[in-house]
Amino acid sequence: MMIFKETRYGVCSPGFRAAGVKRGRYGVSLVVADRVCETAAVFTRNSVKAGSLRYTEAMVKNGVAAVVANSGNANCCVPSGVDDARELAEAAAKALGLSARNVAVASTGIIGRKMDMEAVKSVLSEAACGLAPNPQGSLQAAKAIMTTDTRIKMYSAESKGIRVGGICKGAGMIAPNMATMLCFITTNAALPKGMLGKALRESCEESFNMVSVDGDMSTNDTVLLMSNRTARTGYRAFKPLLAQVMAELAKMIARDGEGASKFIEVEVKGARSVADARAAVKAVSNSPLVKTAFYGENPNWGRIISAIGSRLDIDETRVDVTYSAQGRAAKLLSGGKPMNPEPARKVLAARAVKVEVDLHLGPSSAVGWTCDMTPEYVKINAGYN
Fold first, then answer.
1. Which of 70, 158, 265, 276 has the most CB within a 10 Å radius?
2. What is the distance, to the nearest Å, from the Cα of residue 373 to the centroid of all Cα atoms in its chain?
3. Distance between CA atoms of residues 40 and 199, nearest Å
4. Predicted confidence (pLDDT) at residue 214 exceeds the cutoff of 60
5. Tally of CA atoms within 13 A in the half-sphere of 148 that contains its CB
6. Catalytic residue among 180, 186, 219, 222
7. Which CATH class is domain 263-382?
């Protein structure tokens, strides 16, 4: 349910411009602020990190005035990775009239291949000439970083003069901690860096860390939150707005999972703690058996409680499992007792399905998003190189 008013500006609220260009193998996106922004960031927890990520991780403390992101190459597991990221930052700084110390770099694409720096810098120069302070600029930036994505991912909202907008990419190698993605978020909220970081980390736990397409963690995951500090606000007013934007972007990733034919929302209630509820959601979302059952429209609730039981100590004789879609609900398990599965087959025919599991063990709940796993997912990833 929407809490705040959705808008169309994406990352291009007043004080920000964006652009994106794709030419041949490479795409380049730019998000540029009129001033150096207070910046918070979250990065992958994978111990193998891209050169671009390592570069940005070290410089983000300076504050960010621009982000340059390339698709077509992950800039990962190559000896020159950090140096190539620095070269890209310097090229962007020159084109934009900025200091390289305030330019963040992100990359997405194939691991283990050296980036063609001259080709990427050529695309960068073209993108720098097309910067626009409007939704079209944001759309082009979102489009240029797409890899196996089939949908542009952009969302923004506002409340009482506070604006938050983001673009992201991600469709495969999507797993909790974080989803395989690049995400750039802009805001005018005048909050100190510590509060921005706290809001970003908490919102990430509720959104991107609750998405799964295939259970694989990437080497390049980057989320940057840039504030130009032009509107006064408090943490309690800002955090829910940021959380809404990030949750909507997270749902877009799940809907666009590689080869997906169904979007699945998983809610676990009645857990002993929020941590347990989140663990249960992730167990269901990550299970290939659950995901293939959804593809086959097979109401096999046993796979769901088995997945949860592998992560938590539960009492299967108390569990309820319900599927719902398009105003129709079908209970498959009630207090551990199997129900007639036939009504659930009709529910599972929908493109978007909600799975609700009540463990009846405590007061806590959590929500996450995933998709089914199809033969098309195998086809896409068998040939990705």
1. 70
2. 18
3. 9
4. no
5. 27
6. 180
7. alpha beta
Residue type, 189: A
Q: What is the DSSP string of 240-259?
A: HHHHHHHHHHHHHHHHT-TT
Within the chain, residue ranges assigned H as helices are: 51-59, 81-96, 117-128, 135-144, 193-206, 235-255, 274-286, 288-295, 301-309, 342-347, 375-382
Measured distance CA(65)–CA(351) in Å, rounded: 40
**CATH 3.60.70.12 in the chain, residue ranges:** 5-253
Start and end residues for every CATH 3.10.20.340 domain found in the chain = 263-382
How do strand 222-232 and strand 182-190 relate by DSSP bridges? parallel
Which DSSP string do the residues of 48-90 spell out, in sequence order?
A: S--HHHHHHHHHGGG-EEEEEEEESB---S-TTHHHHHHHHHH
Using CA atoms, how far apart are residues 374 and 376, in angstroms rounded to an integer?
5
| Residue 148 among the catalytic residues | no
* Residue environment code for 259-282, b if the CB has 16+ CB neighbours within 10 A, otherwise e: bbebbbbbbbbbbeeeebbbbbbb
Q: pLDDT tens digits, residue range 33-92?
A: 999 999 999 998 888 999 999 999 999 999 999 999 999 999 999 999 999 999 999 999
Q: Strand pairing partners for 41? A: 224
Q: Which CATH class is domain 5-253?
A: alpha beta
